Amino acid sequence: MTAEATSLSEIAARPDFIATGDPGLDAEVDKADGGRKFQLLDYTELYRLWERQQWATQDLDFTQDRVDWHERISPEERYERLYGLSAFFIGEQRVTDELGPIMRAAPTEEMRIFLSTQIADEARHVRFFERFYDEVGVLETDGGALRDRMERVERNLNDEFGELFDVMLKGKVDRLAADPSDQVTLVEAITLYHMVIEGLLALTGQHFIISYNEQQGTLPGFVEGFGNVARDEHRHVAFGARFLTEMAAADPRYREAIQRTLVESLPIAEGVLRPPFAPDDDDEEFELFGVSMAETQAFAAQCLTRRLKVIGLA
Fold first, then answer.
1. How far apart are CA 88 and CA 138, in angstroms?
2. H-helix or E-strand containing 110?
3. Which of 41, 69, 93, 120 is the most exposed place for a label (fewest CB within 10 A)?
C-alpha cells in the first residue's frame, strides 16, 4: 500500500476530522452513487462544531521547536521547508483579507454567521504563523509591524502563488464587493477559495507537513498548532462543499461557474504546489516533506475528485 493511501486512511479515522464531514477524506465517497449518499453538515451544524473546536495560539509551547529548527534541522532542509511555511503564512493573510465580501454576499443568514467564524479562524492562523516565526527564530527581524515580516516572507514564493491569490482570487472578490448580488461571481469565489485554495492546496500541504514532522519527531508545538489549523480548514471546506452542492443543483449557470473556475485555476494551483527550486522534469524523484511531487499531486487530485463527486460534478 502506498504512503498516500495509508496516510489518507489514518487521517480519515481521526475523530476531529470525521466531525467535519469532509468528503475529501472519506474513501466511502468513491463507492457511493456519484457521491450523493454522503451526508454533509448543514451551516448551523458547522457553526456548532466551530464552538466545540476552539483553540488559542498563546497556549502553544515552541520551546522545543526553537531547538529543533536551529540544532536538528540542517540549513539546507530549513531552506526547503521555508517555501511551504511561507506559502501558508502569506496565504492565511490573503484569505483573511478577501473573505469579507464573500461573507456579505452569502444569500442566507446561516451562511453569513458561519463565514463570520471563518474570518476569525483565518486571522488566528496568521497569528499562529507570526508567533511561530518569532519565537522559533525562523526569520530573524528587528521587530516592527507584522506587514514588515510578511514582506520578507513573500520573497520565498513563486509567480503562480501571486497569480492565484493576488490576481484570480482578489479579482473575483473585488467584483463581489462591487455587486454582492452577483451570485455567479459568489459561486466562482467560493469554488476558488474553498475548493481550490483550501480544499486542494492547504489541506494537501498540511497533511504532508504534519506527517513529515511527526515521522521526524520535530517541531511539536508547530505540529499541535498546525493540526488545529487543519481542523479549522476542514470545517471551511465542508462549508464550501455544502454551498456548491446546493448551488449546482439549483441552476445550470452555477454548475458552469464551478467548472469554469476549476479549469482556469487548477493549472495555476498545480504550480503553487511546486517550489521554485523543484526540477521541472523529475516529479517521481524530487521529494519534499518525505514524498515526491507526483505523490503530492495525486493526493490533491484524489481529495478534490471526492469533493466534486459529492457536489455532483465528477
1. 14
2. helix 109-136
3. 120
118 grid coordinates: 471563518
Q: Which three cell numbers stand for residue 68?
A: 529543533
128: containing domain: 3-311
Distance separating alpha carbons of residues 112 and 103, to the nearest angstrom: 5
Q: What is the largest CA-CA distance in the chain?
A: 57
Yes or no: say if 150 and 89 are a contact pair by the CB < 8 Å rule.
yes
Q: What do you get for the CA distance between the two ends of the chain, in Å?
A: 25
As for how many domains the chain has, the answer is 1
Q: What H or E segment, with its residue span, contains residue 287?
A: strand 287-288
CATH of residue 121's domain is: 1.10.620.20
Q: Distance between CA atoms of 291 and 127, rounded to whole angstroms?
A: 28
Identify whether the C-beta of residue 212 lies closer than 8 Å to the C-beta of residue 290: yes
Amino acid at residue number 183: Q
What is the 8-class DSSP label of residue 279?
-
Q: Could you tell me which of 139, 174, 191 has the C-alpha nearest to residue 308?
A: 191
Judge whether 208 and 268 are in contact, CB under 8 Å.
no
pLDDT score of 260: 96
| CB neighbourhood size of 154 (10 A) | 15
pLDDT at 23 over 90: no
C-alpha dihedral (151, 66, 92, 288), degrees to nearest 10: 100
Give the integer Cα–Cα distance in Å for 129 and 89. 6
Would the pLDDT of 8 be above 50?
A: no
Angle between helical axes of 220-250 and 109-136 (0-180°, round to 10): 160
CB 173 within 8 A of CB 98: yes
